[in-house]
Amino acid sequence: MPMPMREDLGNERLVWMYTQMARIREFEEHVKRTFLEHPGAMRFGGSMHLADPANHFPGTSAIVGQSIAHAAGAALTAQVKKTGQVVYCFFGDGAAKQGAFFETLNLAAVWKLPVVFILENNEYQAYTHISLEDANCIAGDPLSKKAAAFSIPGVTVDGTDPLKVYDEVGKAADRARVGEGPSLIESKFYRFSAHGNAITVPPAPTQFPEHEAVGVYGNKDEYMAARERDPNTLFRARLLREGVLRDADAKKIEDFARAEMDDAVAFALASPLPSPEEATNYVFA
Ligand SMILES: Cc1ncc(C[n+]2csc(CCOP(=O)(O)OP(=O)(O)O)c2C)c(N)n1
Ligand SMILES: [Mg+2]
Questions:
Q1: 215-225: per-residue pLDDT in tens?
Q2: Rounded-to-integer distance, Cα 62 and Cα 192, Å
C-alpha cells in the first residue's frame, strides 16, 4: 500500500479540494467568456457584489478594504454570542493600504476577535504594481510583516499550494477558536487575467485587455513565469503523481465543473432581470 499523501486529510478531502479549484477556475472562465459572447448581458462589478448568507458568507463591499471592518463586526458577533465561529476575511494587497485595514487589525487584536485575515497578494492593485505602493515590499519585506504592528502572528504562504494554505489557515483558526485573537496570513499568488474588462455599451465589443504585467508594464516574462505556476495544473499533477487521482478521474471532475458552469450561464441568461420594485429588498439601513 502506498503511503497516503496526507494522512490527516484523506484522499477524499484532497479530491474535494481539487474539485473546488476546478469549479472556481471554470466559474471565472465562464464569467469572462459570457462578457465576450453576450455583450451587454453582464453589467455588474463582479466579486465586490456577492453575498450568500445562507452559506455563512455575509457579503463583500464595493469599497476596497471596507469588508475588513465588516469581518471584525461579524467576529464580534460570534464572540459576544459565543457561537464558536471563526471569520475568514479575504482582501487584496491594495486593500491592505486602506485605513480600514489598520483600524480593524488594531481593534481585532485589542478585543482578541476570532478572525483570520487573509491578505491575497497577487502583486497588483488594479493597474499598480506592489513595488510602487507597498512600503514593506519596497523594503524587501513580506507583507505579513504588517502583523507586527499589532503584535499578532503574521505568516506568508505560497498561495499556489492549497495544502500549505490549509495548514496555515488551520493554525490561525485554532488560535482564534481558543480566544487568542486574530492572525494575518499573506497568501502569494498571481491572477492570470487583467484586473477587469472595459465595459462598453453594445454594439461596441467588450474586450478583456491583457494582464497589466504585459499591457501596462511590458513585462511578458513575469506573466509567463506566473502561468507556469498555475495552482490547478500543479495540484492536479501532484494528485496524479501520488496516486490520489487517475487522469480519467481528473478529467471527469473538470468536465463536471464545465457542465455545471455552462448550466449556470444558461440559467442566468434565461432569467428575467429583477423588477425595479425589488431594489430596496434586503436593505436594512
Ligand atoms: C475605496 C475604493 N477605491 C478604489 C476602488 C476601485 N477598485 C476596485 S478593485 C481595486 C483594486 C483592488 O486591489 P487589491 O486589493 O490588490 O485586490 P485584487 O483585485 O488584486 O484582488 C480598485 C482600486 C474601489 N472599489 N474602492
Ligand atoms: Mg491585488
A1: 999 999 999 99
A2: 22
